[in-house]
Amino acid sequence: MRPIIFFKMDFSHSSLFGYIEDLQELTIIERPVRRSLKTPEEIERLTVDEELSDIERAVYLLSSGQDIQGTSVVANLPVLMRQNPAETLRRVLPKIREVLHVAGVEMQLTAAVSFLTVLQEESVSIHTYSHSFLHIILQNLEHRDAGVSNAWLETLLAVIEALPKETVRHEILNPLVSKAQLSQTLQSRLVSCKIMGKVAKKFEAHIVKREVLPLVKSLCQDVEYEVRACMCRQLEHVARGIGTELTKTVVLPELVELARDEGSSVRLAAFETLVNLLDMFDADDRSQTVLPLVKSFCEKSFKTDESILVSLSFHLGKLCNGLYGIFTPEQHLRFLEFYKKLSTLGLQQENGHNDNQLHLQTLEQEKKYISVRKNCAYNFPAMIVFVDPKNFHLELYSIFFCLCHDPEVPVRYTMAISFFEVAKLLNSDVYTIHKELVTLLQDESLEVLDALVGHLPEILELMTNRGENNGSESKLLSIPDLIPALTTAEQRAATSLKWRTHEKLLQKYACLPHIISSDQIYYRFLHRMLTIILTNNVLPVQKAAARTLCVYLRYNRKQEQRHEVIQKLIEQLGQGKSYWNRLRFLDTCEFIMELFSKSFFCKYFFLPVLELTHDPVANVRMKLCCLLPKVKSTLKIPTDKHLLQQLELCIRKLLCQEKDKDVLTIVKRVSIFLFKQHLVLGLSLKFQKRFYENDLLDQEKERQEHLLLEM
């Protein structure tokens, strides 16, 4: 018997004061619960007559309801427009317009979304929409809350695309002249910039030149740097709208000026717009104007203007390939060296000392350097194209090695995502990155593994089929360290809590019969799949392992190994003590019916499946009954007539002896379905044709099974 322990209570002044504080906290926690209860008067005020129509209820709630009820009506506007557009426009929309003048942020945001939905669903003609909705959108565009203003702006930009040109010109473009003036608020001018970009793509070049470009120039020279940066980012859309000639004479000079702006955000916007417009500049513009600017950005990024470093690293691949034709060999080498420098930024320096020991970096700097290296990883495939894949080992392999071994997970994750692209570009030289594949497979971060697994079958196929000199010897040499890496990756995924990564990995491992030998799969992977089915607790993982095991069995080339695996499946799953294992046996049988020929299933699995009609657990019998139509479809009559008799006998026994009402219901449905299927098959030419096509596919499966055993 355990001794009873008495705890001594401390009733000192300080302790009592602490208890009182705790009690006060509890009362504070409970207060909102009491406040949330409605009084009878409030409930009566919130109650609406059930006999009112949807339109009448909406009008009533907007007129005398609370804010939350009004917001609900506004959210329901697209539904009302679908049901009764005429009455909604006549009675509900004017009320919404009135309410929005004094509405809170939530209702404003809801209205912006609802107006956009009505446009997208095309509940009314665009003419009616512009007449009824456009003025409300324009009225709320300059709301004092930035979030609300942006929401209405997004709606307006979508509306501009659908509106007729004349409507855009009179209702939107003409008022912009006054809205873009310096006398207007900062918010008004920022909105004008974004509208300019959308409007420029709507009209012909001569209209844009006459009516839009003067405003664009004015906003590019605005006194506020936010406006200049915003307009600078819209210059890409303006350029696309006016064509190459006007871009060269009007947009490019503005970009050059903005690239030298005193505001770092303006310079950044100018740089990114230049990169995005590279395809619109001819060779002369690129060499005489763009290239000097880019070189200036690169030089300043390390010395005086680190703010542009992250953007520069992100766009470097596009920049190098966009300017490729005009580079001299010296410039080509300089940009390559610049990329290499960025790829190791914040890591080991050339003198062998760690940069952190020489300079106390702030947390912000470290984050920036990680982003730069991550962007370099993102651009790595583009840089391979830049140097030519033939020069990869000489020029870029050392950087590839560094990025794959980077101490930060986001960098390695990005390399894992782009690994397949790199492998494709290297083609026959893909053997040079085999060690890095093994490294990433064994990475300590499951995020990296998950990213790599997405294209693992394609990567492994490239690794084994395009080895050095495309010879079989290279293929065999590449396997020994690859197989341990694959098994380690699976075990790490299995011991983690991220079961989706484990499931994905098992699904992708189904490609291994095309990569490695049947014996290697049998000894290193097949039994592991069976263990997962038997011991793992996650159903999707078990099913993935079951299907992959069936694929391995399908391509196994030794009869004795096949028999051993089949026997284990029947004994450990089909006849297992746990009902859960018997359910997984039925899942496995479904995969076998999908992957193998009918004769294979009937020879090894037909009778073990029927034995489960006597299973003591109703769930197992229920799952089996659902599977019976598929099981019957594997029979070939008259060859399998004795098996058909066994199946019919099992169904009759279930109909007569089954005590569980749910199982009995399914058995009755299945028996009726099988009877109807038999009748339809005898009468319908369409079904006969389908069964004939399935028989041809089955014959091909059977032929391949015999061929694999012969090989």
From TrEMBL:
<keyword id="KW-0677">Repeat</keyword>
<feature type="repeat" description="HEAT">
    <location>
        <begin position="212"/>
        <end position="249"/>
    </location>
</feature>
<dbReference type="GO" id="GO:0019888">
    <property type="term" value="F:protein phosphatase regulator activity"/>
</dbReference>
<dbReference type="InterPro" id="IPR016024">
    <property type="entry name" value="ARM-type_fold"/>
</dbReference>
<dbReference type="GO" id="GO:0008287">
    <property type="term" value="C:protein serine/threonine phosphatase complex"/>
</dbReference>
<protein>
    <recommendedName>
        <fullName>Serine/threonine-protein phosphatase 4 regulatory subunit 4</fullName>
    </recommendedName>
</protein>
<comment type="function">
    <text>Putative regulatory subunit of serine/threonine-protein phosphatase 4.</text>
</comment>
<keyword id="KW-0597">Phosphoprotein</keyword>
<dbReference type="InterPro" id="IPR011989">
    <property type="entry name" value="ARM-like"/>
</dbReference>
<dbReference type="InterPro" id="IPR021133">
    <property type="entry name" value="HEAT_type_2"/>
</dbReference>
<keyword id="KW-0175">Coiled coil</keyword>
<dbReference type="GO" id="GO:0005829">
    <property type="term" value="C:cytosol"/>
</dbReference>
<comment type="subunit">
    <text>Serine/threonine-protein phosphatase 4 (PP4) occurs in different assemblies of the catalytic and one or more regulatory subunits. Component of the PP4 complex PPP4C-PPP4R4.</text>
</comment>
<feature type="repeat" description="HEAT">
    <location>
        <begin position="251"/>
        <end position="289"/>
    </location>
</feature>
<keyword id="KW-0963">Cytoplasm</keyword>
<dbReference type="InterPro" id="IPR039918">
    <property type="entry name" value="PPP4R4"/>
</dbReference>
